Amino acid sequence: xxxxxxxxxxxxxxxxxxxxxxxxxxxxxxxxxxxxxxxxxxxxxxxxxxxxxxxxxxxxxxxxxxxxxxxxxxxxxxxxxxxxxxxxxxxxxxxxxxxxxxxxxxxxxxxxxxxxxxxxxxxxxxxxxxxxxxxxxxxxxxxxxxxxxxxxxxxxxxxxxxxxxxxxxxxxxxxxxxxxxxxxxxxxxxxxxxxxxxxxxxxxxxxxxxxxxxxxxxxxxxxxxxxxxxxxxxxxxxxxxxxxxxxxxxxxxxxxxxxxxxxxxxxxxxxxxxxxxxxxxxxxxxxxxxxxxxxxxxxxxxxxxxxxxxxxxxxxxxxxxxxxxxxxxxxxxxxxxxxxxxxxxxxxxxxxxxxxxxxxxx
Length: 362
Ligand SMILES: *Cc1c(COP(=O)(O)O)cnc(C)c1O
Hints:
- By secondary structure, this protein is an alpha/beta fold.
- Helices cover 28% and strands 23% of the residues.
- The protein contains eleven helices and 19 strands.
- The protein has helices at residues 6-20, 30-34, 38-47, 58-68, 88-93, 103-115, 136-144, 171-185, 196-199, 331-338, 342-348; strands at 2-5, 24-25, 27-28, 52-55, 76-79, 96-100, 119-124, 152-158, 190-192, 209-210, 233-244, 249-251, 257-259, 264-268, 285-288, 291-294, 304-307, 321-325, 355-358.
- The strands form five sheets. It has a seven-stranded parallel β-sheet. Strands 1, 11, 14, 17, 18 and 19 form a six-stranded mixed β-sheet that branches.
- Helix 1 crosses helix 3 (38-47) and helix 10 packs across helix 11 (342-348).
- The longest helix has 15 residues, at 6-20.
- Pyridoxal-5'-phosphate is lined by residues 28, 30, 80, 160, 195-197, 211-215, 221.
- Pyridoxal-5'-phosphate (PLP) binds next to helix 9.
């Protein structure tokens, strides 16, 4: 069972808005709301006043539009991947606004805009991510021929930070300077630079609009600093078998772990097919109440085994749940054990995990 605390997401949104002062905060809900369910998450954020959302592609945009229409028909939904060939109609149907960082896409959307009375877009410039956005010469070309934007109302000029999770990284200042130079080439448009971590780099990085994702969902976007965000996600695994081990034996695939007679092993019905990383085998821990229970053996596809010898017998029964992600051991803690980041843990949590929303659901 996966619990998603919508009140915590709302609190995180308010925390970020407070940090931003007068700048607006959008919400990035790509990858089905970082794996937590884009519709319930975005509906709650809309009720908190959020009116601008980012998704990855046109399909996610259509789903989100349908989810928001009854409560926030005026919400603006941006598509980070831009507009593909022949997708203009779908953008119009779901009233989606593309992020354009490619000359061919700008040409396509401008032509569509000229034929239909104008269309809005965000223009993305690359300042060091090397992934999306117009490069230096492409921006020069556009600045030299501004008529190429005829048909497009430029809502924002945006860019994306590569190293915002480390405030001491000189890349941040370099990207800020490059962004200022790029803005000067497209004068008059509002601006957006910061993701979650960028918000905590301070007001120089805030501009008109921030685009947090991970921070809303409680994962740390700055591993070297204590996170001010509320925890959102809980993963409770159901114990399907409790076994008192009477003799020395090994546990799990590969027989990687030997345990002694007298131990107690709980087998829990969550595995790597649910996004509980196989890399955690013999390395991480869950909790029963306040008692840590280490993983013994490898993580299987559908099962994982914990040493619960320290838990009083009456403290755990078959059918009970143990806390695999929660206040004792967060998604970030689990990520550290697995050699990854909290983002990958959240987005990897599989569809078999029943999502339970707690807090006010809109
Ligand atoms: C995913 C993404 C974000 C959100 O980043 P977080 O680190 O989750 O806050 C913002 N902007 C762009 C362009 C993104 O791709």
